[in-house]
Amino acid sequence: MMNSMPPIPASRRRPLDRGGAPALTVLCIAQDAAVRELLPRVLRFDKVLVTADFSEAFMMATSEAPDIAFVELGIGDGAGLSLVHHLKALVPDISVVTLATKKNLDAAANALSLGASGLLLMPLSGDDVLSSVWGIKQRLVERAERDRLERAAAVSARATGWIARIAEVAEAPDRTSAAKELVEILVEVTGAKGGAVYLAGDTPQELVLGAASPSLEGAPSAGTEQRILETFATPRRLLAVPLGSRNVAAGYVLLEEEKPRTGEGGPSADPPIDGIIRLLTNVAATAIAMLGERERAARGGAAIKDPTSSAYSFAYYVDVAGREIGRARRYGRRFSIVTMVYEPVPGQASLSATEFADRMLATVHDTDVLARVDENEFHLLLPETSGLGAHSVRRRIARLGTGEKSAASRALLVGAAAFPHDGQDLGKLLRVARARAEASKSSVVHRLDPDSNTVPDLLEMLIWETVNAAPARQTSAVRPIELDTAEAQALAQAVVADAQRGGAATIVVAHHAGLCLGAAVRSALGHEVDNVALHALDLRAVPGCERIEALAVIAEHGAYALLARHDDGILRGAHAADPLLADVLAERLGRAAGVRVIG
């Protein structure tokens, strides 16, 4: 989609064989009929070209550019040796495997000096052929993955500049001007033929055209989201991206791509740039929302309080947060923000926005600032609160909801970010807190059996999750772990060292005499434990915990959980950078030991 970094054209993408490896073009030059019959049969998923004629071999090499050639040295009374040199000249990247009988071994040695990559003695076997091509397929897979990573890195490297330009949209004179700037930026970033931006109207669900490229001149000037998408975007096969991750009324971006997609994740999709588009539209939604608040304030219609709840308005929240950032920078203070999205679970009793705001205000301190961003999204500013304090507030907030713990935890998404570890400007802090709130939605904690409360039960559930659950793309996804004792201790020391970057941390670890994670944690901490609350718990007397190794770390800038069973010098289990799982693991370890480790 980008002009400067286009995806690999479909015509240049290699087909895959049944095992998922790239198919090769194979040239076989041999007089032996058995060889000419064996290669197509063994390499039936690759393109195999067979000939016994010199001239035809050169034509095939020139037109097909084969990946590998099998050359019988005895062809043409020994003239096959010259083919090695000629093939390397025609196709520099080709791998040439020579085929020889015992009487051709001297020629085989000369062939290797001319650039041949291998020698096979005749008669050939299928295993000989497969071994020769497997290394080449591996190199092609590695090269394709390297190319993909380089393209993704190039897109990500430019993303910082794009985000800065999007953020400047908030400084536009009005929302219409901001929409024009946004269209220009997104068209430039994506290489689209044109684009349009729809902004939230004065009534719920109404969208108003803010700006459009000349190619989309016929775009409706206003209408509901459903009407605009069904009557305009879908017939013209436009890519529609919401301005904001869930608040549809915030607006929509429509992009006219060079090659319209055939469906979700279709062949024209380029995952790196798709992720950048979503990120840019999220930033743009915040910028336009701030601009809208400023416009309302200029018209004298802005209020400090949200008109439908007890929370403050987002404009007031931004103003207070700006002053708090200034104080924190000037005096070296801490503060945190918490993002909360209340998503009622179908079939469960739910709270109204007013009820949720009232419960929130009864939970937080008087100095905290609660603001409502949209219908179900709230932000909380916590002055003089560190990252650990934000974790504590996050736990208290997570207990709000319908009264049923499992339903409430699914209904309420909560994410926290702390200054300065997670960002030093409001935009970055909001993005981090929102991303963590979104990640909490897929946490494994929501799939735990509430009736299974022991540490061994938790371990079995996590192991089941790593084996049977669909792969998750979130950084907080649970992943299997299998390490020997020394590697596990090194991992624990690295986690503790990273946790200390933010200063304060809470660490809960299983500890006993001998080599264990507890010993590794104590060694990593040394004597600098003033800011670390360490709970080293001996669980060997607890049924089922005799061989348990566990580590839960809750730090200023994140959390980590590891739970495994020690078996003959190997730790087998699961781990994740999941704050919810770290809370659950710490609580269950403390319960097993009969102590309270987190509030």
Structure description:
This is Response regulator. Residues 25-137 form the Response regulatory domain. It holds the Pfam family GGDEF. InterPro entries: CheY-like_superfamily, GGDEF_dom, Nucleotide_cyclase, Rev_trsase/Diguanyl_cyclase, Sig_transdc_resp-reg_receiver. It comes from Polyangium spumosum. Helix content is 42%, strand content 21%. It folds into four domains: 25-139, Rossmann fold, CATH 3.40.50; 172-258 and 272-296, Beta-Lactamase, CATH 3.30.450; 314-442, Alpha-Beta Plaits (2-Layer Sandwich), CATH 3.30.70.270; 450-593, Endonuclease, Chain A (2-Layer Sandwich). With 599 residues, it is α/β, with parallel strands linked by helices. The chain is flat and about 95 Å long. It has helices at residues 33-42, 54-64, 80-90, 105-113, 126-167, 175-190, 225-233, 271-298, 314-331, 353-363, 387-398, 405-411, 426-440, 455-468, 485-499, 517-525, 579-593, and strands spanning 25-29, 47-51, 68-72, 95-100, 118-121, 194-200, 206-212, 222-224, 239-242, 251-256, 312-313, 335-342, 369-372, 377-383, 412-419, 479-484, 505-510, 532-537, 548-555, 558-567, 570-576. Strands 16-21-20-19-17-18 form a six-stranded mixed sheet, with helices on both faces. A five-stranded parallel sheet has the order 2-1-3-4-5, with helices on both faces. The model is unreliable at 1-13, 262-271 and 402-409 (pLDDT under 50).
Describe the structure in brief.
The chain has 599 residues and is of the alpha/beta class.
